[in-house]
Write a structure and sequence with these properties.
This protein has 2 helices and no strands. The chain is mainly α.
């Protein structure tokens, strides 16, 4: 049985492209969801709207996981000092 590759060689630019593509896809799916809400209030489309909602949630979660894996810049000399933003 084949295993999964847990080590990826992606650059920061690659990750930015992935995030941009996910945001565009999320925007398109959101527009589709809004159009579905506007065109009908019939309960027959609840399965379609549920699928769209699940997809939006999955995209949002993935973008969040990508964001949480980032290491943001902090000056080396301030490493032991408390963090003050702004």
């Amino acid at each position: 049985m084949a295993g999964y590759n847990k080590n990826f060689e992606l650059t920061v630019d690659d990750i930015e492209r992935i995030e941009a593509a996910l945001r565009l896809h999320k925007q398109a799916v959101s527009i589709e969801r809004l159009a579905l809400l506007e065109e009908t209030d019939a309960p027959s489309d609840t399965t379609r709207s549920d699928l769209i909602d699940k997809e939006l949630s999955a995209i949002h979660d993935l973008l969040g996981r990508l964001h949480n894996q980032k290491i943001f810049y902090r000056p080396a000399k301030a490493k032991n000092a408390p963090y003050v933003s702004g």
